[in-house]
Amino acid sequence: MMRVFPDIETLPPDQNATAAISSLESRSDEEFRDLALSGDWGRVLTIGVVVEKNGEELHRGLLGRERQTMMFHLDEARTLRAFWKLLRGFNTKRDLVVGHNIFDFDLLFLYKRSIIQRVRPSVSLLFARYRSQPIFDTMYEWEKWRWSRKHISLDELARVPRARHSAQGGQAAGVIGAARPPRTRGGRGSLASEIPVTCLPSESQSIASVSVISHSSTL
Predict the structure, then answer these.
(1) Residue 4: which of 111, 66, 91 has the closest Cα?
(2) How many other CB atoms are there within 10 angstroms of residue 125's CB atom?
(3) Tens digit of pLDDT for each residue in 157-216?
(4) Distance (Å, rounded) from C-alpha 46 to C-alpha 41?
(5) Which of 1, 170, 173, 199 is most buried as measured by Cβ atoms within 10 A of its Cβ?
(6) CA angle 116, 122, 126 (to 5 degrees)
(7) Cα–Cα distance between 137 and 131 in angstroms, integer?
(8) Sign of the CA dihedral 42, 102, 2, 132?
(9) The model scores a pTM over 0.70
């Protein structure tokens, strides 16, 4: 079984895109920065990703940096190709992509940017709601896909104390172990602070049996 844990950092449009699209020129600085959250206009800066197969870690790192200098190369198409290469052999009926708010943001952003950059994804993931295969989104699994104006953040979810096991019927009422993400570079909300805490679904893919692990900040 393969498990992939992605988390992306994004940028607003580059100068060429801004010059080509007149509607972007009239935006305020804050509105322009907010475009980094849109796969239509924003760009992928880097993808933090951990890949595990049958319990063995195959890859851990940041895509989008030069190996020698560790500087971001800003070649979005190259970063996207590297990501989809890691997902070769991914089986949508068996394997999982796991993350927090990856359903509405990270994965959707990656697919849109791949289309725009003419990069062919190596796998076609099913974006069907109310399912936990092949996308296991901890934000929605925690809420059981309940509609809400404000969903729990990854930082908040990591603080939820481990619930006690129920004595009735021998069923586990515990849902998640408390594991606070380490303070790393980038501050709260950045890739550096989000990817250290990743929820690992069990084979039953129930949020009730998810445990939180801490990945190192050296991605």
Answers:
(1) 91
(2) 18
(3) 888 765 333 333 332 222 232 222 233 333 334 444 444 444 444 444 444 433 333 333
(4) 16
(5) 199
(6) 85
(7) 9
(8) negative
(9) yes
- Residue 165 token pair: 């096991």
Name the CA dihedral angle for 135, 138, 143, 146, rounded to a multiple of 10 degrees. Answer: -30
DSSP string of 186-210, one letter each residue: T-TTSHHHHTTEEEE--TT--GGG-
Do residues 88 and 59 make contact, with C-beta atoms less than 8 angstroms apart? no
CA distance to 56, 121, 176, 203, per residue, from 206 (Å): 21, 28, 11, 8
> What Rg, from alpha-carbon coordinates, does the chain have?
18
**Residue 96 is encoded by which pair of tokens?**
């999982």
Q: Which residues of 85-105 are buried (b: 16+ CB within 10 A; e: fewer)?
A: ebbeebeeeebbbbbbbbbeb
For tokens 């992928």, the residue is: 44
- Alpha-carbon distance of 138 to 214, in angstroms, equals 15
CB 100 within 8 A of CB 138: yes
Write the single-letter amino acid at 43. Answer: R
Q: Is the peptide bond before 13 cis (omega within 30 degrees of 0)?
A: no
Residue 106 and residue 96 in contact, taking contact as beta carbons nearer than 8 Å: no
